[in-house]
Amino acid sequence: MTSRKRRSLLLAGAAGAFLMVTAPTAEAVTYYPVAPGHRVNVRSGPGTSYPIVRVLPEGARVAIFCQTPGTTVSGPYGTSNIWDNIDNGEFISDTYVKTGSDGYVAPRCG
Questions:
Q1: Residue 1 pLDDT
Q2: 16-69 pLDDT, tens digit each
Q3: Which 3 state secondary structure label does DSSP give 3?
Q4: How many other CB atoms are there within 10 angstroms of residue 41's CB atom?
Q5: φ, ψ at 14 (rounded to 5°)
């Protein structure tokens, strides 16, 4: 093997090792279904007194980034004061999301 080929292989290997060490790892995001047959109000905070910022269509699925206590709501999946943060400044009552739990399934919002 020539000196030039060896140098190219070493540089390629070093670049590959660098990418393996510095490349960000993708965290798995879980999406939960919204209760069938419901269009769900998305609010700017964890309660019914916060303004509606949009409405989720029937059949929507949401990622829950964190959860926080707020207004107690009764919905298809029971009665709870847990609110799910589904995007920056967007919350829905956990009683409209099928998480498989009556408690917290994500970290508390900070």
A1: 58
A2: 443 344 444 556 889 999 999 999 999 999 999 999 999 999 999 999 999 999
A3: helix
A4: 17
A5: -65, -40
Question: Is the Cβ–Cβ distance between 19 and 28 less than 8 Å?
Answer: no
**Which pair of structure tokens corresponds to residue 25?**
């790892």
The two three-digit tokens of residue 80, written as one number = 């709870």
Separation CA 95–CA 83 (nearest Å): 8
pLDDT given at position 28: 80
- Distance in angstroms (rounded) separating the CA atoms of residues 95 and 92: 8
As beta bridge partners, residue 33 has 61
Cα–Cα distance between 42 and 108 in angstroms, integer? Answer: 18
Whole-angstrom distance, CA of residue 100 vs CA of residue 7: 56
Tracing tokens 């009556």 back to the chain, one arrives at: 102
